[in-house]
Amino acid sequence: QVQFAEFGGGLVQPGGSLSLSCVASNFTITKYRMSWYRQTPGKEREFVASILGEEINYADSVKGRFTISRDDDKNAAYLLMNNLKPADTAVYYCGVRTLGHWGQGTLVTVSS
After folding, report:
1. Which one of 35, 77, 80, 89 is most buried, counting C-beta atoms within 10 A?
2. How far does Cα 72 stand from its chain's mean position?
């Protein structure tokens, strides 16, 4: 059974940083684009960032603040989030969008 597990969420003050991790089980991420999405109550899940090889994409709202990376040897993807804003508060999910494989999510709360 394919599983993705996200780690690293928590409470952080505005302007702070968090680093999220995502580890895949029973699945090899090597050939796939890994994506991070986020969702807040009452809203649709929205794209945050994705990576496949050297091809990296970011949502405009996070450009210059978030950095996505991956380590295929560890079957993992990461999201470094700097200069966090209250608007970044959401449950963050990682996975492979084209296969519909997602983790359970990790909650990021940005608040003073």
Report:
1. 77
2. 16
What is the spatial distance between Cα 40 and Cα 35, in angstroms, rounded to a whole number?
Answer: 17
Whole-angstrom Cα distance, residue 13 to residue 35?
Answer: 25
Strand partners for 95: 35, 102
pLDDT per residue as tens digits for the range 28-65: 999 999 999 999 999 999 999 999 999 999 999 999 99
Give the N- to C-terminal CA distance of the chain in Å, as an integer.
39
Residue with token string 């050297």: 54
Q: Strands 106-110 and 10-12, how do they pair?
A: parallel
State how far the Cα of 51 lies from the Cα of 36, in Å rounded to an integer.
9
43 class by beta-carbon count within 10 Å (0-12 exposed, 13-18 middle, 19+ buried): exposed
Q: How confident is the model at residue 86 (pLDDT cuts 50, 70, 90)?
A: very high
Which residue do the tokens 């928590």 mark?
A: 10
List the structure tokens of 72.
């295929």
